[in-house]
């Protein structure tokens, strides 16, 4: 929870060239379009094969690094990553691999979650990447929420967009901006997650 006890959705992402970050910002807008809940934007540090490499605790720019407490106290979670050979990027997986403490305590059970991704090519492994991010969320006992086909842009898009979660085709130079369909779907995904987070938060409180 935040200091004023308002529930929040954690938007947790890793972005190398900015495409996934742009998607994360659209999810934030979707979350914050719902009254009574807010978004918390967090990223993860890169990983290095060089053991001596050390990054600053606070990034020079952009979202701050996520902590386990950001995850522990969220009412909902969206995780985003560029595709790496049909899987999530190593920095995000490294962070998720370190959440066993939350798993043992059941901190994320019955909370809604979703995922989003970006690729360089149109058929670049978007759906397998989204499924790879879904697996640890299920192990945590979270309730996965994709994108329903009531979002008509899923049928109209010529680039990103899947029922497993929002996606974006960034182009081979990773400089293609989100088009209107991709922007809408990322916004809709954030809005849906916020609505579900509020409903499930109220249900958990009633059960106590």
From TrEMBL:
InterPro entries: Flavodoxin/NO_synth, Flavodoxin_CS, Flavoprotein-like_sf, Flavoprotein_WrbA-like, FMN_Rdtase-like_dom
All residue ranges annotated as the Flavodoxin-like domain in the record: 9-193
A single cellular component GO annotation: membrane
Presence of keyword Disulfide bond: no
Molecular function in Gene Ontology: electron transfer activity; FMN binding; NAD(P)H dehydrogenase (quinone) activity
Keywords: Flavoprotein, FMN
Cofactors: FMN
PROSITE patterns per the UniProt record, alphabetical: FLAVODOXIN, FLAVODOXIN_LIKE
Domain of life: Bacteria
NCBIfam families noted in UniProt: flav_wrbA (TIGR01755), PRK03767.1 (NF002999)
Stated family: Belongs to the WrbA family.
Name of the protein: NAD(P)H dehydrogenase (Quinone)
Protein source organism: Halomonas ventosae
